């Protein structure tokens, strides 16, 4: 039998090339894993370590975000909508910056805008879905309040000018407004859960927006205890941050993003 002349016996061995994952030193855990409650504190500690490696760059990014928020705040309605979309893209860029810092490259101010260069479309869709869910929440609040006004006769009492009836109804309306506020707070928690890891999953794992929102929600759900501890600690941090004329927010805001990246690695990556 003649040897196969199509094969060069002197050529280097070849292997199939497999594209590297976004994080080459870790395997992605589909859906995320449950971690212990104490990890909520560890996320903040890891976030602080990320921040202290490039504090000036992080603080400048925080200043840019605050300035953009103030400027857009002068534009009625549209400004708030643009802010929500922009901040999701910013979050994706900061997650990319944290990833670069993790692999050895220092965090840079330009990382804040890297989401516009790589994942602008999907990140903006996440922002638009967040806006849509927030609007739906406001509609629910409006319906609940309209039901209350209609069922108690508050509108009729206001039109008739019956002061005694108004006094009693207003006292009850305060309690109803508080109750509606609690309902809205409870309904907003799932929205926050869906959004929390979505920018990281889109930017770092190339996920589609809806898939990222879904996986983020269930990852937060299975880690409700560490997130409870994380939230309580961060509540104290924010209280302290606003005391010195709010200047502490220049550190607290970067710490939110950096600790979110730390939580993402802890829950979604097997290192």
Please provide a written account of the structure.
By secondary structure, this protein is mainly alpha-helical. 73% of the residues lie in helices and 1% in strands. It has a two-stranded antiparallel sheet. Helix 1 packs across helix 10, helix 2 packs antiparallel against helix 3 and helix 7 crosses helix 9. The radius of gyration is 25 Å and the shape is globular.
Low-confidence stretches: 1-7, 9-21
Distance between the termini: 50 Å
Query: Could you tell me the mean pLDDT?
Result: 85
Reported for the largest beta sheet, the result is: 2 strands, antiparallel
The number of helical runs is 11
Q: Helix-strand pattern, N to C?
A: EHHHHHHHHHHHE
> What structural category characterises the helix and strand content?
mainly alpha
Strand content: under 5%
Based on CA inertia axes, which overall geometry fits? globular
- Our Rg estimate from Cα atoms comes to 25 Å
How many strands appear in the DSSP assignment? 2
Strand order in the sheet with the most strands:
1-2
What percentage of residues falls in helices of 4 or more residues? Answer: over 70%
Briefly characterize the structure.
This protein has 271 residues and is mainly α. The chain has a domain at 33-125 and 191-270. The chain has helices at 39-53, 55-73, 78-102, 114-118, 120-152, 154-160, 163-196, 198-205, 209-222, 224-241, 249-268, and strands spanning 27-28, 269-270.
